[in-house]
Amino acid sequence: MASFLLVHGSCHGAWCWRDLIPALEALGHTARAIDMPSHGADPTPVADVTLDSCRDAILNACTPDTIVVGHSWAGFPISAAAEARPDAMRALIYLCAYVPRDGLSMAEMRRRGPRQTIAHAVEKSADGLSYTVSVDAVPQLFYHDCPDDILPYAYARLCPQAILPQETPLPVGARFAKVPKAYIRTTDDHTIPTEYQADMSACVPENLRRTIDSSHSPFFSHPQELAELLSELAGKL
């Protein structure tokens, strides 16, 4: 059985894996989620969050047997962790996530996408250090196929996202390349275009690419199906 570390995306926290963790445990795996710096219960001020500090939070939670699952923007810090210490983890699984291209930042990659889905909804803080997503845009961007209880649960927990780590270029090379990888693409995603996910997943062997007919939040909309996909991929990694 596998040991999973679950890493959330922008504005979220460990709370978003609420339904997936028990689904993985029911399949015999162990799973834990962490709050990235300035998210959830982590007390780091937004002004102090860097790509390196996000990377280090992942490395501090890893063992060489860990399969690290990164959702959305978390594709960048999990990749940074692999580049820094490829032997610190067993594998990476990208869940509708950005896979870095050498020397680009996540924000640059988003701007190079085939469609811009989220720019209209981003509300930057007065000090320019963080952003939130418009309350009116959240349902369609993140949760359009999720159960009714998810919106109030998420609204109570969504938080500002530090801009600096997402504007920081990430060099990746041979150390990153040596870490086994899989990709799960969401086919009804309103946040990261599914065709862009298909393009980014090309770095993963074809037999380690999967799809799920879900929004950007399959951990809420399809937790059992997602757990089964992760379990199956773990057996191949």
From TrEMBL:
Domain AB hydrolase-1: 4-228
Annotated coiled-coil segments of the chain: none
Keyword annotations: Hydrolase
UniProt cross-references to Gene3D superfamilies, sorted A to Z: alpha/beta hydrolase
InterPro entries from the UniProt entry: AB_hydrolase_1 (IPR000073), AB_hydrolase_fold (IPR029058), Sec-Metab_Biosynth_Hydrolase (IPR052897)
Entries under SUPFAM superfamilies matching the protein: alpha/beta-Hydrolases
Pfam families named among the record's database cross-references: Abhydrolase_6
Gene Ontology MF terms in the entry: hydrolase activity
Protein name according to UniProt: Alpha/beta fold hydrolase
Organism listed in the record: Ruegeria atlantica
